Amino acid sequence: MNLFIISGASGMTGSELCNRIIEGGGHVIGFDNFFASDYSSLEHLTGHPDFEFYQMDLTNREQMNRLSREIRARRNDFQKLIYINCAAVVHTEHFYHVNSTFQTNVVGMKNFLDDAILMGADIFINCSTSEVYSMQSYKEGGVREDDYLSMATAEHSQRTSYAAGKLLTEFFMKDAASQKKSNGEPLILGCSIRFANVYADKEKYPKHIIPHIINSLRKDGKVVLLENAKQTRRTFLHNIDSCNGVLELINSPEALDGSVYNIATEEEVSILELVKKIADAMGVIPKIEFSGVRASDPPRRYLSTEKIRSRTHWKPTVTLEEGIQRCLRVFDK
After folding, report:
1. Which of 31-45, 60-74, 216-230, 261-275 has the lowest mean pLDDT?
2. Is 103 exposed, middle or buried (0-12, 13-18, 19+ CB in 10 A)?
3. Residue 189's beta-bridge partner residues?
């Protein structure tokens, strides 16, 4: 049996990974500070012999030291030790809060990676973000991991601080995976993942776009969108497929050389088309209003997934239409 340490365990990706890993015969120690989530996503695992949860903050050194002591005492009871960093300041409104994003996404990740190396972990998965593409987030065929980046500057948007911080974590991961132990083996196997816009059946964070649309339509049939939505186009990745990507990479050691991988779908839609798709599924005629503008918001984001497809067996399995239906079934309960 393998032991998995998961930060941000109650979030969209973290909670689904807890479910999948336990179903697959692994043991999970998860923790979260509930910044943008709560324990409801994990309540069904309470009491499960292969699930442990702690309310801890990735940036609290005393708490992380306590967790490391717990892991050290039990390390030899498991075959492999695998760390997955799902903690992030995740919603767009928080991208502009420079100190918060730096503490969680940069300092927290680096300390978590250092802890994993100190514990002799076998694998470290770093969940990054497609935000690193900033204003250069679209080209024919999709932006690739090895494309040169062109980011907005501080003069244009503080939002770029989030992207810059996440990009730095990818360098930490690459550096750690490039180092060798005295026996010539890698110091740690690992990679970073740039997810597209992830959503989930049970994800009801009201400011995320899909639950925002559903909640608005259910309330009075009216959806208020930013002015940006008149031109914004995105792809949306169900968290079943984001987690499939994490698990495929964990099971593909040859891919864990510090590389970066895009994980996304090819179903690009405009935000206005997304509203129509959800409204059609609900059987309502939407009223759309526009208010406010988000600075330095790329009009399109389309990622190439050729790299992860060539190095693992991953491919998306949940279509946007199916994902919308899954969300509506949960919201209607």
Report:
1. 31-45
2. middle
3. 123
pLDDT greater than 70 at residue 92: no
List the domains of the chain with CATH numbers.
Answer: 3-199+237-264+298-317 (3.40.50.720)
| Burial class of 271 by CB neighbour count within 10 A (0 to 12, 13 to 18, 19+) | buried
3-state SS record for 283-306: CCCCEEEECCCCCCCCCECCECCH
Which residues are CB-neighbours of 228 under 8 A, at least 6 positions away?
293, 294, 297, 299
Short-list 41, 61, 59, CA closest to 51: 41
Assigned token pair, 229: 């939505």
Distance CA 111, CA 68 (A): 11
| Cβ-contact 103, 168 below 8 angstroms | no
Task: Give the separation between CA 108 and CA 87, rounded to whole angstroms.
Answer: 8
pLDDT at site 127 = 95
Provide the residue count of the chain: 333
Q: What is the 3-state secondary structure (H, E, C) of 43-58?
A: HHHCCCCCEEEEECCC
Q: Which two tokens stand for residue 131?
A: 């935000």
Longest Cα–Cα distance in the chain: 65
pLDDT at 234 over 70: yes
| C-alpha closest to that of 13 among 246, 204, 172, 301 | 246
Cβ count near 22 (within 10 Å): 17
**What rounded mean pLDDT belongs to the chain?**
92
Residue 168 to residue 60: CA distance in whole angstroms: 20
0.90 exceeded by pTM = yes
Read off the tokens for 319: 């279509």
CA angle 242, 243, 247 (to 5 degrees): 125
For residue 83, the cross-strand partners are: 5, 124
Cβ neighbours, 10 Å, residue 186: 17
pLDDT confidence of residue 267: 96
Secondary structure class of 65 (helix, strand, coil)? helix
**DSSP code for 238:** E
Residues with Cβ < 8 Å from 331, sequence gap 6 or more? 204, 211, 214, 215, 218
